[in-house]
């Protein structure tokens, strides 16, 4: 009764008390909403970790195209050995030097297509990378020195020859192809930093060929002959792959990106090593299929620009970066041993020495992507 009389006596105070309560409740609710809401540089508003993909009026498809300017490198591609030692069999061997083939910068490309699912910002992406490289090198003995072959000692089987060669000419070819299928999700973890973790499959077919011609003079000193060595090292494999893409945005248009991934593939090496003379008479030949598991890793970093086009109907992304790919233990070529050691009364016919070596690819990548 007393409270009713007070409220009747002070209607203004009652109104102020009610408004204060309502404002306090609404302010508290807004604070809670702000705590779980995030607005990123693209203007996307949502709960924490909103989508990082373009906000387009479209059906969700996208396409990519990359230009590659890469250089290949591989261990175990030596083909000759030079020394300033004057006579074969003389000890010590002075100023020994392995001579290798060194691939130069070459061009390649990567094409891809994908689809952005409407559910939970997932996307599916398929891309094909193709790269071709070749190299050549030649060698002659240094002044007053000797030149030896390092791929085959079948020279000892050719009549009237010595253990040294007069010259060596090598050619190398690499054909590199990978097919990657990725299932990923792009999202912001802060207003300017986004992630895209992904998992999927990788298929690879990588072909390598090394051909060397050794020229030598027979023991009579009058006839010049050639010994040709040919090696094929082809790999076919498939396996699982996982990685993550990172973007740090300066504003809506410009960002720097980083990419890292790794894959484990199970596949087959088809390896051939063969030595023959100029008349295609085979002195030594080896062919084998090797089933192995191989690992590979990839890293890339660069700068990226993007923008919406035609009233948010399309989204264009351009980037320029540097990419590194490393394939472990991809050189399976073998040095053939066809020697009869009369001193030790031992025969090494039919034996071989694996060369081993990692394959590396690195260089500039120019990329374009269109979402529609």
Question: Can you walk through the features of this model?
Answer:
The chain is mainly β. The chain has 2 domains: 1-39; 44-371, Lipocalin (Beta Barrel). Helices cover 9% and strands 61% of the residues. The protein has helices at 2-9, 11-36; strands at residues 37-39, 45-47, 61-74, 78-83, 97-100, 106-116, 122-139, 146-149, 167-185, 187-190, 193-217, 224-249, 254-277, 282-309, 314-327, 334-337, 340-341, 346-347, 351-354, 359-371. It has a 10-stranded antiparallel barrel with strand order 3-6-7-9-11-12-13-14-15-20. Strands 5-4-8 form a 3-stranded antiparallel β-sheet, with no helix packed on it.
* Biggest sheet details: 10 strands, antiparallel, barrel
Total helices: the number is 2
- Widest sheet: strand order? 3-6-7-9-11-12-13-14-15-20
Q: Strand fraction band?
A: over 45%
Q: What is the gyration radius calculated from CA atoms?
A: 33 Å
